[in-house]
Amino acid sequence: MKHYTPENFALTESVGFKLTKARNLVIAEMDAALKELDITSPQMGIVLALQRGLASTPFELSKLLSVDTGLMTRMLDKLESKGLLERSRSAEDRRVVNLALTKKGLEVAGELPNIAPVVLNARLRKFTRAEFEELGRLLDKFIGE
């Protein structure tokens, strides 16, 4: 089914525009809430992925978080300079860089479950449980999962 045609397409009413606007709102609110921890919402994704064992290399993080490798390198440099993570070469394959959170990085990761839900719940406050579940289902369908 074609939902858009040249005649009915309006930028500010398109799904892409609304998804981008929603993403930007969440990022701005999350960044404000994370200011005290001195990390950004994209950096939060890296810290949580490492803490939860979802990824352990820059390439795995790039795939998981849908971030190009150049930007990932810059974000990892920033987190390393803040003392939150460390890089090491793989003993099996010197081309592979392994990542691990430092003690400070683990402390920051431990604070994130106290911050992120507050931000997300505030944004979702007008949703019923059923609407929240439906939003998740529709987003999964949209992204093909």
Automatic annotation (TrEMBL):
<dbReference type="GO" id="GO:0003677">
    <property type="term" value="F:DNA binding"/>
</dbReference>
<keyword id="KW-0805">Transcription regulation</keyword>
<dbReference type="GO" id="GO:0003700">
    <property type="term" value="F:DNA-binding transcription factor activity"/>
</dbReference>
<protein>
    <submittedName>
        <fullName>MarR family transcriptional regulator</fullName>
    </submittedName>
</protein>
<feature type="domain" description="HTH marR-type">
    <location>
        <begin position="1"/>
        <end position="144"/>
    </location>
</feature>
<dbReference type="Pfam" id="PF01047">
    <property type="entry name" value="MarR"/>
</dbReference>
<keyword id="KW-0238">DNA-binding</keyword>
<keyword id="KW-0804">Transcription</keyword>
<dbReference type="InterPro" id="IPR000835">
    <property type="entry name" value="HTH_MarR-typ"/>
</dbReference>
<dbReference type="InterPro" id="IPR036388">
    <property type="entry name" value="WH-like_DNA-bd_sf"/>
</dbReference>
<dbReference type="InterPro" id="IPR036390">
    <property type="entry name" value="WH_DNA-bd_sf"/>
</dbReference>
